[in-house]
């Protein structure tokens, strides 16, 4: 039986139960089905999309709610969590150092009440994790079913990762970092942006990641490529206060022996370090800035200089520090940020050999366009990790300030996504813009300065694209006009012995127009909307275009007459197509139904 049928059977059987023995047998079948759904969500189908996974969780929620209502008829249940809420552990990795679970809803219909009632469950789980791990990074995702007219879709509202320590106020975190941001996002989404309305609350997903903050120690040798820049001061000390020594080195520069602590006043006599603990962690720097009226930026080197932590505002006393990762970590003073950045960038720029440079001339008319217009903001930084400890383990990656989220493949394989510390705008977007602008200018010039004055009302544009036009022209012989004004046309693809006597000239000259049919007569044309049209040319197969629909589906199941009927009868036509998808590195196929033809030019 499929899942839908099994669920329907359990719902129907629930109404027919009359004895406690029948109830116990029914509940066992229900638990077995829920267990199979959980297994599909966690292990057997890692390629599940978020929507499919939430669909499974929603099905589990419905069955849990059904179990509650049936249990009330046969079993006296004591007090516990708020009615209609259940905790489900979804995924764990590295001995539960990374954990994802969900508070599943079955009865609540109002978001605030659901979130407030879920707090008991969430805070209990978080306290349990923090008893074992001391500090965590945690984020939440509110999942709901939304409606827009007859459409239904599962959508999510996420909160940012937040660092929690044993000293943190969990009640305050839940209220200010979970409840209020989610409710504000829901209000904004429903009222201002989309027209979607919350129909059903599915769950609140909690992702908890063990957090060992970046911490620093001293007496570390730096690599030669860093020291050769002569842009840093590395103070060697026997304590864990390399951060403080580096700040002192900035405030009281030494003329010689800059690596010795004896060249500087002791940091305790210069800096206010009330409640600051060493080794220094990034989350303490804000307090240090306020105590000493000093702004501090922290950078790291990963092929190039990247900011780890930037101060809110630059104060009169400002310090740039370099964080060097090792087993412990180490802060050093950057005395000349420009030299460090410029020389590193110059070196890597000299060694760079990329596809854009190699293929510029070969592909500059076509393939380059896509790269010039590429949105570099969409790029992500994902690390695949197979261990918890170590410099490149999951523990270290979660500790990074730019940690975003984790995805679990198995017990010993996790993907960690890091937020982009910088977006390098190195794409010549202006080139792509110019290509479009020049193309449009050429089209406008051809139509308004040549075709319109020449044919006047006997010339009508049927369809246009970035670099093409389809005309309906009434005249004695358009090919005689092409031959007369040959300097305006590329005729190099006409047959050598073409019936019109048109010479083959101007091959691939930019800016000239070309008869794509090469003398063949276009007898019929149907244009529905952008990228959706059909045309008939004498002696050739019908040309049918429908963007978003696979070419084999268009060729086999859509006819020229379908385009005509769609336009004349103002109807939409749908087609089924099979697609190959890949989720979490597992390839599979899906079947989808899409609008293939539409007379509405609404894109």
UniProtKB/TrEMBL annotation:
- Alphabetical GO biological process terms: DNA biosynthetic process
Name the residues that span the membrane. Answer: none
Record-linked InterPro entries: DNA/RNA_pol_sf, DNA_pol_palm_dom_sf
Top-rank taxon? Eukaryota
* Alphabetical list of Gene3D superfamilies matching this protein: Palm domain of DNA polymerase
Can you say what this protein is called? Answer: DNA-directed DNA polymerase
Species the sequence originates in: Cyphomyrmex costatus
């Amino acid at each position: 039986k499929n899942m839908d049928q099994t669920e329907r059977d359990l719902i129907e059987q629930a109404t027919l139960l009359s004895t406690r023995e029948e109830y116990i047998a029914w509940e066992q079948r229900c638990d077995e089905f829920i267990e199979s759904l959980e297994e599909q969500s966690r292990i057997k189908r890692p390629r599940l999309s978020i929507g499919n996974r939430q669909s499974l969780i929603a099905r589990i929620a419905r069955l849990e709610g059904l179990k509650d209502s049936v249990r009330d008829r046969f079993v006296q249940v004591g007090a516990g969590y708020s009615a209609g809420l259940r905790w489900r552990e979804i995924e764990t990795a590295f001995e539960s150092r990374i954990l994802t679970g969900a508070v599943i809803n079955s009865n609540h219909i109002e978001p605030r009440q659901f979130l407030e009632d879920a707090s008991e469950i969430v805070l209990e789980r978080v306290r349990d994790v923090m008893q074992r791990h001391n500090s965590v990074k945690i984020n939440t995702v509110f999942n709901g079913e939304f409606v827009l007219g007859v459409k239904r879709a599962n959508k999510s509202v996420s909160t940012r990762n937040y660092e929690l320590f044993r000293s943190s106020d969990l009640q305050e975190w839940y209220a200010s970092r979970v409840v209020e941001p989610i409710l504000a996002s829901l209000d904004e989404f429903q009222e201002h942006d989309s027209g979607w309305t919350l129909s059903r609350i599915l769950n609140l997903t909690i992702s908890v990641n063990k957090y060992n903050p970046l911490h620093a120690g001293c007496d570390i040798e730096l690599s030669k490529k860093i020291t050769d820049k002569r842009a840093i001061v590395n103070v060697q000390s026997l304590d864990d206060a390399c951060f403080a020594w580096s700040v002192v080195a900035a405030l009281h520069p030494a003329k010689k022996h800059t690596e010795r602590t004896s060249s500087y006043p002791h940091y305790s006599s210069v800096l206010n370090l009330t409640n600051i603990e060493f080794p220094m962690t990034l989350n303490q720097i804000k307090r240090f800035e306020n105590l000493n009226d000093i702004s501090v930026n922290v950078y790291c080197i990963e092929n190039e200089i990247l900011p780890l932590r930037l101060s809110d505002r630059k104060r009169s006393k400002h310090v740039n520090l370099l964080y060097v990762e090792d087993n412990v970590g180490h802060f050093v003073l950057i005395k000349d940020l420009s030299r460090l950045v410029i020389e590193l960038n110059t070196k890597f720029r000299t060694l760079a050999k990329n596809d854009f440079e190699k293929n510029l001339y070969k592909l500059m008319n076509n393939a380059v366009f896509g790269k010039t217009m590429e949105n570099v903001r969409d790029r992500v930084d994902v690390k695949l990790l197979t261990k918890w400890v170590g410099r490149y383990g999951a523990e270290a990656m979660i500790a990074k300030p730019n940690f975003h989220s984790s995805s679990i493949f198995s017990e010993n394989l996790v993907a960690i996504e890091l937020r982009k510390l910088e977006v390098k705008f190195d794409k010549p977007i202006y080139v792509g813009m110019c290509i479009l602008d020049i193309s449009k200018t050429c089209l406008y010039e051809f139509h308004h300065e040549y075709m319109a004055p020449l044919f006047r009302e006997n010339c009508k544009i049927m369809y246009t694209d970035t670099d093409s036009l389809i005309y309906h022209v009434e005249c004695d012989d358009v090919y005689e006009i092409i031959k007369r004004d040959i300097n305006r046309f590329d005729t190099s693809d006409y047959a050598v012995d073409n019936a019109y006597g048109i010479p083959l000239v101007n091959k691939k000259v930019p800016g000239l127009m070309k008869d794509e049919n090469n003398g063949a007569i276009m007898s019929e044309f149907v244009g529905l909307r952008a990228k959706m049209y059909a045309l008939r040319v004498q002696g050739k197969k019908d040309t049918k275009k429908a963007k978003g629909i696979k070419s084999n589906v268009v060729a086999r199941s859509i006819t020229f007459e379908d385009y005509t009927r769609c336009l004349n009868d103002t109807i939409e036509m749908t087609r089924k197509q099979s697609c190959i998808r890949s989720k979490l590195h597992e390839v599979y196929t899906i079947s989808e139904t899409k609008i293939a033809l539409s007379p509405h030019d609404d894109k």
